Amino acid sequence: MDWVAQARELASQAHAGQQDKAGHPYIEHVARVAAAIHDDDMAKAAAWLHDVVEDCTQHAAQVQAFPAPIRDTVTLLSRHSAADADQYYARIRQHPLALKVKLADIADNAHPRRLLQLAPAVADRLRGKYAAALAALG
């Protein structure tokens, strides 16, 4: 089974019509995160699905059809999986697949080109958020 293709299809369905903070199709962010993952199909599939459980609850159950390494990674990447930010980042830090995807996610979200598309106050807040996340991830 081509889990990457299956994940891409589910992510495309789940994020259809969603926009990011700059007004672009949200799936473009997800695709960039997945494209940043090389030589690891489990992580690449999880990258496609990394926001489905958290942001697309009507599609979350479909993630259960994927193999355990993908499911577990996607679950850890959901903010709902931990009581607070410290626990959230500590759990990701201990899970190689989740860490790989989260670092790619932060790199895309914190890219200067993306931040320049936002209001300065929003961009400044996000820079701080992503710097704190990177510090928490070690």
What is the terminal-to-terminal distance?
34 Å
Low-confidence stretches: none
What oligomeric state do the depicted chains represent?
Answer: single chain
User: Could you please say which CATH topology applies here?
Assistant: Hypothetical protein af1432
SS field, number of helical segments? 9
CATH class wording:
Mainly Alpha
Rg over CA atoms, rounded to whole Å, is 14 Å
Number of strands: 0
Order of helices and strands: HHHHHHHHH
Estimate nothing, just give the exact number of structural domains. 1
Largest sheet: none
Helical fraction equals 55-70%
CATH superfamily: Hypothetical protein af1432
Overall CATH architecture: Orthogonal Bundle
Structure description:
This protein is mostly helical and 138 residues long. The protein has one domain: Hypothetical protein af1432 (Orthogonal Bundle). 65% of the residues lie in helices and 0% in strands. The protein has nine helices and no strands. The chain has helices spanning 3-14, 26-35, 41-49, 52-55, 68-77, 85-93, 96-109, 112-115, 120-137. It is globular and about 45 Å long. The model has no long low-confidence stretch (mean pLDDT 95).
